[in-house]
């Protein structure tokens, strides 16, 4: 898997920018750009990634996808099944470790964004999420869930007895597992759009 540092350098050269020019556009020092490109700094926050993609004139997905950058567009997440990755043309992404060091995920990931007019807890229009398809609970976090025949995003946790608990974004109400509830995928990374 390609690392993020070489991709930043490749995109910077494609954009015909030196490190100082890119640094000014992103709002960091040229030393920081050098550290990013060399991999000395492996964690880059969402706001910096967005600023970096804007300064490089490329979509954020290209920054995240490596050598296939720009080819696999984010898939639209809709409230109605099927899951977006069930489309045979759906492109998976390689998720660079340095973007989500807390996640130890091996397997497929898909880049999703809410479809126009669709609303989901924990996601706003334009947000991007990397979702790893799974029907197994791995750890407390956000999951794509099918409930009552509709897709939703829920924070999933376990109680002391091992029963799954589902909670919405702005609700104190916690729901338990029901026979019509299915885990579809775990959100392993989320990039939120910043208000302008």
Automatic annotation (TrEMBL):
Residues 8-63 form the HTH cro/C1-type domain. SMART domains: HTH_XRE. InterPro entries: Cro/C1-type_HTH, Lambda_DNA-bd_dom_sf. Pfam families: HTH_3. This is Helix-turn-helix transcriptional regulator. It comes from Halomonas alkalicola.
């Amino acid at each position: 898997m390609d690392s993020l540092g070489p991709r930043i350098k490749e995109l910077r050269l494609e954009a015909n920018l030196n490190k100082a020019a890119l640094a000014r556009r992103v709002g960091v020092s040229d030393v920081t750009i050098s550290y990013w490109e060399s991999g000395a700094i492996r964690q880059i926050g969402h706001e910096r990634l967005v600023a970096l993609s804007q300064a490089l004139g490329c979509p954020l997905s290209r920054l995240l996808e490596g050598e296939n950058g720009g080819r696999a567009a984010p898939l639209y997440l809709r409230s109605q099944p099927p899951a977006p990755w069930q489309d045979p043309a759906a492109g998976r992404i390689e998720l660079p470790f340095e973007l989500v060091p807390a996640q130890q995920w091996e397997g497929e990931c898909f880049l999703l964004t809410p479809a126009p007019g669709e609303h989901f807890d924990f996601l706003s229009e334009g947000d991007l999420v990397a979702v790893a398809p799974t029907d197994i609970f791995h750890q407390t976090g956000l999951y794509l869930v099918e409930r009552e025949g509709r897709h939703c995003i829920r924070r999933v946790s376990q109680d002391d007895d091992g029963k799954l608990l589902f909670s919405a974004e702005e609700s104190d109400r916690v729901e338990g597992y029901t026979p019509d509830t299915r885990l579809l995928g775990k959100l392993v990374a989320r990039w939120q759009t910043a208000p302008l």
